[in-house]
User: Fold these one by one.
Assistant:
Number 1:
Amino acid sequence: MGQALAFYTLAAFILGFGVLVVTARSTVHSIVFLVADFLFIAGLYVLMGAPFLAAIQVVVYAGGIVVLYLFVVMLVNLKRPPEAHQDRRRRGRLGMVVALVVLVELAAIAAYKYVSPAAGLPPVTPMGPDNVAQVGMILYTDYLIPFELASILLLVAMVGAIILARRDL
Amino acid sequence: MTPITPAHYMVLSAALFIIGVIGVMTRRNIIVILMSIELMLNAVNINLVAFSQLWQNAVGQVFVVFVVCVAAAEAAVGLGIILAFYRNKETVNIDEMSLMRW
Amino acid sequence: MIDLVVIPLIKIVIVLTGVLVTVMYLVLLERKVQAWVQVRLGPMRVGPHGVLQPIADVLKLFVKEDITPVRADKWVFTLAPIIVLVPAIIAFAVIPFGDTVSIFGKPVPLRVADLNIGLLYIVAVASIGIYGIILGGWSSNSKYPLLGALRSSAQLISYEVAVTLTFVSVVLASGSLSMVDIVTAQKANGVWFAFVQPVSLFIYAVGALAETNRSPFDLPEAEQELVAGFHTEYSGMRFALFFLAEYANMIVVSAIATTLFFGGWLRPFPNVEFLRVLDIVPGWAWFVVKTFLVLYVFLWIRATLPRYRYDQLMRLGWKFLIPLAIANIIVTAAVKVVLSY
């Protein structure tokens, strides 16, 4: 009961802030809504029994990536909003078409559940208490090679970003 | 109330993904487009964690760690490209980033 | 019902009032300590030896006019101080003030919550506080705040990396992310982590000074530099929130240092039987004393050291502290592996 209430509240906020991100007029407002969105998604992770991921979501996504976006927005501070001269009506129509596709897709998921139900998906249950140890163990034993590759990827991305953002290219 | 099954999480994830897609297709500001891509990645993450919880297997969460990693790398490089472009063309509207179009 | 709602609520109220009162008196303490170091007396008029000065300060900030710049973004302008203050206060949720005491026959652990990812929670909360500074500087729609905000937030995210790496080596030494477990590990070891991990303590000390925008790293908000940095355009109650947040951050950082490196609520030499007599002093009193000693070091450093220039500051963070922190992690891990044979 409490879990359902928490899920519906979090889902409403996540989708609400998602819509606000996409439709906000000012870019900085979009970024603030994105941060709020990520914080609620972190709350959802806690609900799903993944507290380590919730912390990683806040530290890396909300506290790192979006700060990077905010920096770039402030360095790219324009006088006139970039969408001043485009066709407003075209946006509306395209958005309606995509939203219709969504509706059809979600209806298909819902209907599939009744038409040919899966072998009774069990309701979700939380995992063991030491989530961090579990994730850490898997990262360092089964998936050690992707872990090391990810570190190389991050190094390459860091060097690339520094070179790209220099003044004297 | 019905118990919260992974189907609920799939619907939430699909809806968030489509919101991201709408953002990418309708907005013209490239920074907002990149943010919508982040929304899509988060939708995928929600799905992964939901199924990791269903099968009580932490590998789903490990996958999410890697997705976050890749998203960070992509955001850094993407924003670097935007900065470099802005220094040359003074715009962040993707309609005006058409130098290599035919 | 009582266990789930009433007791945590009471604890939250106590922690909140404690923090706010401590912040008020920390402001006075800072002025007094600075004054004494500079061979003068500090605030002396309001109340005996200036003891009622914080009340005068609070009253002044309450009744000051609340100015919003003309073309400032009103919502973000109002939101920024809140975003800075909230993380500083909710970080107190995981700090253990003492062991489990029994009040009216009920065992009550002296902490608001014992998360099993306590240290990660603190890192997460600290990284949210950066937004208030950037948004405050940007929404003021004025160049000095914007520059101050950019500098300050760049400083914060740089030193946050170094501080998080020192947390990793502390977690290696204690084997758990939970703050309570870290104190328990220090008790089991018999020595505080300050002696087991001196390099971590050094990096954490420098990083904490930079994280809270304190001297010698207070270039982004010093009056001689960018007018007043990111909170130039703020006045009255909003400025009070920024001010409160800075001192609350100082207290959080000192409390974390106490828990991680100085044994939390343990008495000195917690395993030595000979000093059992020191047990009359309750755990939370030790915690408060240790935190105040660390805070005093903060104030002492402000009165003593000159300010770092911005490029020197960034170079120190990236080129010295982060490699040192990584080397520290490697050495700690190697020592742990060797010791386990």
Number 2:
Amino acid sequence: MEGVAQPRFYFDLGSPRAWLAAERVVEDLGEVPEFVPVAMPEGGFRCDAEIDAYFEDIAREAERLGVLALRRPPVFPTDTGFAMLAATYARQIGKVVAFSLGAFRQAYNGGRDLSEQDTVLLAGAAAEIHPAALIKGAGLRSTAERLRVATEEARAAGVTAVPAVVRP
Amino acid sequence: MIDVIVGHADDLTRGLVRSALEDDGCHVRDAASASALLAACEEDAPDVVVVDIALCAREHTPVLARLKQDPVLFPVAVVLLAPAAAPREVLRDLDRGAQDIILTPIRNMDVVARVRAAARTKALQEEFLKRGRAMEDLVYGDPLTGLHNRRFILTQLSALVGSARRHERDLLILLLDVDGFKSVNDELGHAAGDAALVEIAARLKRRLRREDYVGRLGGDEILIVLPDTPARAAPRVCEDLREVVGQKPMVLEGLSRTITVSGGWAAWSGEDTDVLLKRADDALYRAKDAGRNRICGAAFAAPPAPVTT
């Protein structure tokens, strides 16, 4: 078959930089990339001041890019384990773009904590995924396995941090 | 081999059921509690669960309800072990999705016969679901290209317009038309025209996401629906799809030929589906009129007229 496969956009919902990239990736690439959730949360902050400086940088970048203004989530870094499993399930059912944009906006425009199940379910509702289905889908062993495999594939492709775009 | 999980609190009864089924060649696991039974099912879904009605009815872990409400485990056939003195409970659980009942005290022949029957029914249900999916493919698929057909893509577009309206989400559509398709058919034959459509479909599908929809409206007209794709991204995204089709020649009936497409895109801006399609169609006509092998964007929809009284 002729033709080039579309690029892959790797993201972790715990990364505000990935939020900024997700908002602009289609426009900037000029192609429709496959959204792939991978477990690569941001971390390594040594103190609150460092986190404050980081978010000031994110806010400036958001303004520059013209995306909706940043509202900091109450906890950062936070546990996005369930949210990432939900994103992986959303990918499986063909709703990962809507779900992940919804989750990013809940966290970084709505200032909500993605470690809370309700926040994730709100993002699911925006993607028209039934809450019971999202909870069940995120809890499946096969979903956890898919997230693990996607993360390993990203690492094998040279991705060490998100956001990242890779052309297979 | 039938995969069975036996759930009963009593070691002796569990052992009897297990040995009867193992003697018949079944693969058997067992569980002494409702939670252990559900955990075993989650671990690896069996074909049949044989479970004591008392274990099944425990309110804190309602086994039958949990299995039948589970999107993965619901096909598992449940056979109840019940005393003859509990007809009301048995009828209730049969109504709730249990497949069959084995009266206690058990007889080996009963256990084997009912588990075999339950497994057979489950296999038939799976076949039925498979046929249903195959039927859906026939009803909603385009047999030539493997794309969605007109009925499906237009239904899906309406649903996505509704979703975009409810959640204020972006939605982009692209209408493509093969340039000079008639001449391909006339010069190379209809088989070549068909092969060109198949190749175009394959190139487009390879370039789209899982959430995007691409369908053949009829003839050589293709509709692509891209949810969550903003209008500002449309020119480059649509141009990319045009290039994907035309950048390399196709081999049709042994001849190398470059096939190009023209396209018109429209970003949803609050209008109904037919208006959105009309805007994309108008843009497509402009692309054709402007010399083909190009993409044009639709003008934004006019805002609805104010209501006057």
